[in-house]
Design brief:
Elements (H helix, E strand, L loop, with lengths): L11 H5 L16 E7 L5 E7 L1 H4 L4 E5 L29 E2 L5 E7 L2 H8 L3 E6 L27 E3 L2 H6 L3 E9 L2 E2 L7 E7 L2 E6 L4 H12 L6 E4 L15 H13 L3 E4 L2 H7 L2 E2 L2 E9 L5 E12 L13 H4 L4 E10 L13 H19 L3 H7 L17 H12 L12 E2 L2 E13 L5 E7 L5 E4 L9 H13 L6 E4 L16 H25 L15 E3 L2 E4 L2 E4 H8 L4 E7 L6 H5 L3 E13 L5 E11 L6 H20 L5 E2 L4 E2 L18 E5 L23 H13 L10 H4 L9
Parallel strand pairs: 1-13, 11-12, 16-17, 21-22, 28-31
Antiparallel strand pairs: 1-5, 2-4, 2-6, 3-5, 7-17, 8-15, 9-14, 10-11, 10-13, 15-16, 18-19, 19-27, 20-21, 20-26, 23-24, 24-25, 27-28, 29-30
Bound molecules: dioxothiomolybdenum(VI) ion.
Length: about 750
């Protein structure tokens, strides 16, 4: 059984040898030109004069594109359901909508020439007073029609106000989270190669089909004229669900000049040119009986959005399925600010939302004097508490108990600020985790060659998550082939259209579709062999067949799979498999399908300096069936570190005078490094969710983020007795409250 094994990445040797070719490393027959974006240096206003003469005379410059000479472009078609497929015009007018928005695009022989010339573009503006400070514009909050992924803006069950006001124990707190950004290791980059009416676009992206549609509709071209090639993507985290200005501008310039063009964003540019996670202000109210049973839950969220394009993270959405309580309320409100658009950033909404709610649960446990693990177990729902449907396969309690046992939760300091280890105040914290399981339409092709190799083909991407490897395992398992007889070819727009990678849906969708394609091939080839007088399987019952080691066996008779292929299909044979989207899968209406987990963290806080160090961290997860124990664990650990990062590090700071992000590199926008994560483990419970798909497998990547930050924050409280609700928890927020004690 290949599925589930900790198979090493099949693309690993190529990657460590530098032979996995990423977008910016691709090469064309003609030497490419290089493009560089010049960004607006104001946050809101209008270009009144733009002088490109100096830039145009600069060495190596071939083109300077501004709103005055940019080609006409398509505008977003709002009837296209998903934003990422819509047009994304650039340089389309003199208005400046946010700091860093492109005002010119310079193309030159080298990157350095393009960048130097971009600095010589002279722009005069009339400035308008933009809105950059969410706290100053509370009066402009409005309710969107729906939040991200089409989820409901508000929900209400029972009578929250009455139940909360009469509850025996109440928590009513505000939590704030900062702007955050995806910063994938590979920056957003592309090489666009024109040939005749066609464009070949090597682009770092998560969804090939959205890249193709967005480029085609912006350039007003037939989609068939756009060829996307994305064999490898170096991380996306939501920021590559769509292409951004760099790709659109490269495509426009490549067509205008008839030459290949390369563009990569600099690390600094990523802070203004891709979508951000909105800042949030969350009020969480919990009302409980003295025994810990919740009677009322409310989660109300206010975030920023952009007047250019509304975006509402589903920050309170997971709260709807997390705990039982008869009286409930969730609400999302938006305040327009003149900042870059909001877009999906890994675990959109779930990450900041669970940080707040799972901190509030810790506050409730503290108020009740109750073990926070027991508090969660006491509030485990039997049905989805807002949808009134059963859960498909919920194992939160198993995760909580297994995690508590493995972590040694019984050794925790039950009283905050009660344990010392030298100069360190030591604390334990925990949190529950839940995340919805998404499913998108996907087609995959599997081809059996006359050599006996299975070739999996799709426009699916591997963004570092292990897609090549799990699809190898699924095809090998279904066809009874050793993994080295399976080749996976991804990221080509001419192959069948998949969901792409995002929302943790990639593995479930694509593995199911590959499994189904293989089933079609098995059935077809078996029927042929069993009815063919030349086959040793002739006349035998296909229902008894076993595919293994490259052979098909029925009882004692056996034939090589390759032989069957060659006899009937000298050129090879292929089949497609597909998955439906959530809207067309009845299980999504009849069941609440999620993944679950529990996080545990131990931190030390320096009693004098308030330095916070993670000491160890453990997550236990229930994700249905695991497709690859190694890649799934890596995804979960990466997610848990993202939670640590949200609790202690990440904070994109906006200058509220200009709308510019001032933490514009990874020296100022902090993320954890290896030394910040001394000991971490992720454990997956055995499982199989038959309502999710035929393989019983659900996505794992974003689940690791959900709640993990709260486990760290709750550990900081347990260590110090200080509750910081304004994330991230930095030293300056703890230090004034630390008791002065001699060490
Ligand atoms: Mo997902 S927000 O595409 O990492």
């Amino acid at each position: 059984m290949m599925i589930g094994e900790a198979l090493n990445r099949v693309d690993g040797p190529l990657k460590v040898a530098g032979q996995a070719t990423y977008a910016y490393e691709q090469w064309a027959a003609d030497q490419p030109l290089y493009g560089f974006i010049a960004g607006a240096t104001i946050g809101k206003g209008r270009i009144t004069r733009i002088d490109t003469s100096l830039a145009e005379r600069s060495p190596g410059v071939r083109m300077v594109m501004t709103h005055r000479n940019a080609p006409a472009q398509g505008t977003p078609d709002l009837s296209t359901a998903w934003e990422y497929w819509r047009a994304y015009p650039a340089l389309s007018g003199p208005d400046v909508n946010h700091y860093g928005e492109p005002v010119a695009f310079v193309v030159a022989t080298t990157f350095e020439q393009a960048r130097a010339a971009a600095n010589l573009v002279q722009v005069d503006y009339t400035q308008e007073s933009g809105h950059y400070d969410i706290t100053a514009h509370r009066d402009q909050a409005y309710a969107p029609e729906a939040v991200n992924a089409g989820l409901q803006t508000d929900t209400a069950v029972g009578d929250f106000d009455t139940a909360f006001s009469t509850a025996a124990v109440r928590v009513d707190q505000r939590y704030t989270t900062p702007y955050e950004l995806s910063q994938p290791m590979e920056p957003h980059a592309c090489l666009v190669v024109p040939s005749g009416a066609d464009l070949t676009v090597y682009v770092s992206c998560q969804i090939v089909d959205s890249a193709r549609s967005s480029i085609a509709s912006t350039l007003q071209l037939d989609e068939q004229r756009i060829h996307i090639v994305t064999p490898y993507t170096g991380g996306g985290f939501g920021s590559k669900l769509r292409v951004h200005h760099e790709t659109i501008l490269a495509a426009l310039a490549a067509r205008a000049l008839g030459q290949p063009i390369k563009v990569a964003l600099t690390r600094q540019q990523i802070f203004h040119l891709v979508g951000l996670r909105p800042t949030s202000d969350q009020r969480v109210r919990l009302g409980a009986e003295r025994d810990g049973r919740l009677v009322a839950i409310a989660h109300e969220v206010t975030m920023n959005t952009s007047p250019l394009k509304e975006y509402a993270e589903q920050t309170a959405a997971t709260t709807r399925s997390l705990y039982a309580a008869p009286n409930r309320l969730t609400r999302h409100r938006l305040i327009p600010l003149d900042l870059p658009r909001g877009e999906d950033v890994r675990a959109p909404g779930e990450a900041p939302g669970m940080l707040a709610v799972e901190s509030a649960m810790d506050e409730l446990a503290d108020a009740l004097g109750m073990d926070p693990v027991e508090l969660r177990i006491r509030n485990e729902p039997e049905y989805d508490p807002e949808r009134d449907v059963p859960f498909s396969d919920r194992h939160t309690i198993d995760c909580l108990r297994e995690g508590a046992r493995r972590f040694g939760w019984e050794h925790r300091p039950t009283k905050p600020a009660s344990r010392r280890d030298g100069r360190w105040l030591v604390g334990y914290g925990m949190s529950a985790a839940i995340r919805g399981h998404f499913q998108m339409p996907t087609r995959m092709r599997v081809r059996l060659t006359p050599e006996g190799t299975a070739v999996v083909q799709s426009d699916m991407t591997d963004i570092g998550t292990g897609t090549y490897t799990i699809l190898t395992q699924v095809a090998a398992d279904a066809l009874g082939l050793p993994p080295d007889r399976v080749r996976v070819e991804l990221g080509i727009s001419e192959y069948p259209v998949s969901s792409g990678s995002g929302g943790s849906w990639g593995s479930g969708n694509t593995s199911t579709a590959v499994h189904r394609a293989c089933a079609v091939l098995r059935e077809k080839l078996l029927a042929e062999a069993c009815t063919d007088a030349h086959s040793p399987l002739h006349g035998l019952d296909p229902a008894e067949a076993v595919f293994s080691d490259g052979n098909v066996r029925i009882g004692r008779a056996s034939e090589a799979l390759r032989e069957i292929v060659v006899r009937g299909h000298p050129e090879g044979v292929d089949a497609e498999g597909e998955t439906a989207g959530m809207a067309d899968d009845p299980n999504y209406k009849s069941y609440s399908i999620n993944t679950y987990g529990a996080h545990f963290a131990e931190v030390g806080v320096d009693a004098d300096t308030a330095e916070i160090r993670l000491r160890r961290m453990l997550g236990v997860f229930s994700v249905g069936r695991v497709l690859n124990a190694k890649t799934a664990r890596s995804q979960l650990i990466g997610g848990m570190i993202w939670g640590l990062s949200a609790a202690l590090d990440e904070d994109a700071v906006v200058d509220t005078r200009s709308g510019a992000f001032v933490t514009r590199d990874l020296a100022n926008y902090l993320v954890p490094v290896h030394a910040d994560v001394p000991e971490i483990d992720a454990v997956m419970l055995e499982g199989y969710d038959e309502k999710a798909n035929v393989l019983g497998a659900k996505g794992v990547g974003e689940l690791g983020i959900c709640g993990s930050g709260a486990a760290v924050a709750n550990a900081v409280f347990n260590a110090t007795g200080i509750r910081v609700r304004d994330f991230p928890i930095t030293l300056d927020k703890l230090l004034p409250h630390l008791p002065l004690v001699a060490t």
